[in-house]
Each structure stands twice: as C-alpha cells, then as structure tokens.
Write a structure and sequence with these properties.
By secondary structure, the chain is an all-alpha fold. It has one domain. α3 runs antiparallel to α4.
C-alpha cells in the first residue's frame, strides 16, 4: 500500500488523545455531581468520554494497521468531539465552567474533529483508489467494481 503522510503521524495523535482522556474521564467520574437535573449525570459524562477513548484508540489502531475501517471510526470520533464540545458549552453552570468548556472546544475538540474528518476523507480516498489491496475482498472493505454502461 502506498502511504499517505497522514498515516505516519495521525495514529500517534489518536493514541495520545486517548491516553490524555483517561485521567480526564477519571477526574470527571470523581468530581461531577451525582445529580444535576437529570439522574446519573456522572455516569452519562464519564461513559461518553470512555466511549470516545475507545473510538480514539480504535482509530489509532486501524491507522497503524492501514485499515480502511479507520474512515468509519475517524468519522465517529469527529462527530463525538463536536457533540462533546456542544454539550460541555451548553451545560456549563458557572462562568468559569463555561470558559473552560470554550477553551477545550477551541483548543482540543473542534481541531480534533477537523483532524478526524480529514483522516476519514483520506482513508476513504485511499479505499476508493484501491490502496488497501491486501484486504480480503468483501463488500464491506472493497469498493464495488466499476459499472460498465450497457450498449
């Protein structure tokens, strides 16, 4: 497989992002109130971040393995990061919490979402170009053959 420059450094970024989120998720699980206006508030946020960690780690793994499925997990990461930024900002209860949420959105979540979407697009382009030739030919990993017009 021909390698895109993105494949060389993007998996490392995803692995670091997943590792950084582990202590953050533990911190949230220990410090968020047990209840806000909804029950299980702590579990909801810690669970969301735990799922984000799994997606980041899976994207890193798939990127290192040069697997076309990286486009799917990268797109999911992008979506989750935008959702995370949105809910962090809209559920902030104090001015300080709002400032932290905006700072995280501007410095981590939105740039991460943009990076993830760029990775998904690159992986998709590589998939279409047939750069994943070592993959088994299945309908989930191989693009359909070109359509030949009838005469």
């Amino acid at each position: 497989m021909r390698s895109y420059p993105l494949w060389t450094w993007a998996p490392r970024v995803y692995a670091v992002m997943a590792a950084v989120l582990v202590p953050w998720t533990v911190y949230l699980a220990l410090t968020l109130p047990d209840r806000a206006t909804e029950s299980h508030y702590q579990v909801a946020w810690a669970g969301f971040d735990a799922l984000l960690i799994l997606l980041l780690a899976r994207t890193a793994y798939l990127g290192w393995r040069h697997r076309p499925q990286a486009m799917l997990t990268a797109a999911a990461v992008s979506t989750m990061l935008v959702i995370d930024a949105w809910f962090d900002i809209t559920t902030a209860t104090t001015r300080q919490a709002l400032m932290v949420a905006i700072l995280l959105a501007v410095t981590f979540e939105i740039p991460g979402a943009i990076l993830s979407m760029a990775l998904a697009r690159r992986a998709h382009a590589a998939w279409i170009a047939g750069l994943f030739a070592s993959d088994p030919p299945t309908s989930l990993t191989t693009p359909p053959p070109p359509r030949v017009p009838e005469q």
